[in-house]
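Example record

Each entry pairs one chain with its bound ligand, pyridoxal-5'-phosphate.
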Amino acid sequence: MTLHIHTPLIESRPLSLAAGSNVWLKLDALQPCGSFKLRGVGHACEVHHARGARHFVSSSGGNAGLAVAYAGRKLGVPVTVVVPETTTDRAKDLLRLEGAKVVVHGSSWQEANALAQTLVGPDDAFIHPFDDPLLWAGHASLVDEVAEAGMKPDAVVLSVGGGGLLSGVVEGLQRNGWGDVPVLAVETEGAASLHAAMQAGHSVELERIASVATSLGAKRVADQALVCVQQHPVHSHLVSDRAALEACERFLLDHRVLVEPACGAALALAYAPGALAQYQNVLVVVCGGATATLEQIQAWLQQVD
Ligand SMILES: *Cc1c(COP(=O)(O)O)cnc(C)c1O
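Structure tokens for the complex follow.
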């Protein structure tokens, strides 16, 4: 028994026609709390629960916090999520819907996270949103499911925030003997922390995040993301906020699934004519995201260049 579900793997006719390759979708937007995060977070929470943790603490107002709240409810472990004042009412409502205690503190994530750290007692577990080997091991199950389905892709497209998904997918590719399958790592231009690190050859802290893809907003990627880049073929791609938002709208029409711009970034690469032309079969990780509404996406489209 795992907390995450096996998600559908489908061939997308609209995306295949747009890309000129066979595009396969791993629909992790259909995880019970709306994103792939449940794979890694669920695994981490199960391990901590088995070790006797009595309380889970998170400082993510996004999909990681939601996954912790969901996992805690399922395991019967109380959850506290500390979020900054900038967190939307929708995100707070979703967290409370999962039974989490929501504490609002500080004007930035740094301040919320600092308070969260003080709440972690000896019998508690702090669940990081992207930088933890337990998370990567859990995220790797996504590739196991594709391998079980008998589909070996020629490339994998995914979004990168702090690099947890990237680290997990690379772990999954390696453990299935697919070390030759390249990963196309997509970020929006205003949240390009992996791109900056790959250019510099070492981890870099961005001065600021300037993107509607809030779930990609890690100023610095996990060190493991750079290890992945050294040990596995990883190609960095950037898309505009507009392209990510338009991909969300188009994907909603094509597949009737609403995703966040963070996921739209990966989809935008598949919708960009010719971007995947050199690959015959491409796996796109539809990582999902529960915090954006259609109204929000349409409002952002009015605002971006
Ligand atoms: C967390 C998240 C990402 C980025 O994942 P990282 O592990 O931080 O790289 C992308 N899309 C969605 C919807 C997310 O919730």
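The chain has a mean pLDDT of 97.
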